[in-house]
Amino acid sequence: MGRSARWTGLAFVAPFLILYVVILFYPLLMGMGISLHRADLFGARTFVGFDNYVRLFGDPIFHQALGNTLLLTLMIVPPLTAIALGLALALNRPTRSAAWLRGLFFSSSVLSVTIVTLIWRFILTPDAGLVAEILEAAGRPPIPFLSDPELTIPALAITTIWWSIGLPMMLFLAGLQQIPADIYEAAALDRAGPWTRFRRITLPSLRRTLILVVMLQTAAQLQLFGQAQLLTAGGPSGASRPVVLFIYEVAFVRWELGYASAAAEMLFLLVLAATLLQYWAVRPREEG
Questions:
Q1: Which of 40, 117, 165, 238 supports an S-S bond with 230, CB 3.0-4.6 Å?
Q2: Between the ranges 2-11, 40-49, 130-139, 160-169, where is the mean pLDDT highest?
Q3: Residue 288: what pLDDT?
């Protein structure tokens, strides 16, 4: 590659790099700096070193929020990935009904979090929700999905899976359409069954897409916020409060900006660690 080609390439990526530094990298450094201070929203700052981080390690509310976030991620990412893959396999055909269903399943992804939570509040509310009405017609008592500490996390997980199913399904569909048809034809000549074709052809061919979906969804669900704030407000007693809602409450309700920044930096490290762990977990297989 000549020098002119390198400068041309740099010119193409420079706008993104500048935007990346201004919007992402600079705020990250600012957050690290604020996390070392006792700060409020009015600009008052007192340097406290790592006191905010030490306080986080002993804060039971932060521990609860962290546990809720990890549990939500575990309850969302594996089922979401499996359902999206199943839908993509079922709808990967050139028929009008399949195209209509692809659009139907993707449509939930374009809704705002406010609309999504309103829909699921109408479904899950125990006094007049859809599920409560069905149970009442069957002579059964309503189930307090949004107020029982044992049910709020599953309710948030179901809501998020319904909302997020569209993009992973489309990614899997794109991956399926890249698999050459002659591989399946050769497998059919060898009398390979559907399960064998899925295990020996489809799944290995979708490995990169599968990794991408898991990485994107893990990073997204570790930052879950809107559903928890609007559907349960983190309750009852913090049973459904994720880390981002904890950060929001600390920063904008208690006005402890330095402490909230320390929690945000811890969440950043968690997302970074999860992403790197998945990257390194698959790298040896790719090199082999």
A1: 117
A2: 160-169
A3: 45
Q: Which long-range contacts (CB under 8 A, 24 or more apart) does 15-23 make?
A: none
How many Å apart are CA 144 and CA 142, to the nearest integer? 6
Considering only CA atoms, which of 279, 287, 128, 116 is closest in space to residue 212?
279
Mean pLDDT in residue range 67-83: 94
Non-local CB neighbours of 73 within 8 Å, separated by 6+ positions: 218, 221, 222, 224
User: Are the CB atoms for 172 and 206 separated by under 8 Å?
Assistant: yes
Q: What is the mean pLDDT of residues 114-133?
A: 87
Within 13 Å, how many C-alpha atoms sit on residue 1's CB side? Answer: 7
C-alpha pair distances (Å), 49 with each of 55, 247, 254: 11, 19, 20
Q: What pTM, to 2 d.p., does this model score? A: 0.85
CA-based nearest residue to 170, from 234, 96, 248, 109: 109
In this prediction, residues 31-54 reach a mean pLDDT of 86
Maximum separation of any 2 CA atoms in the chain, in Å? 77
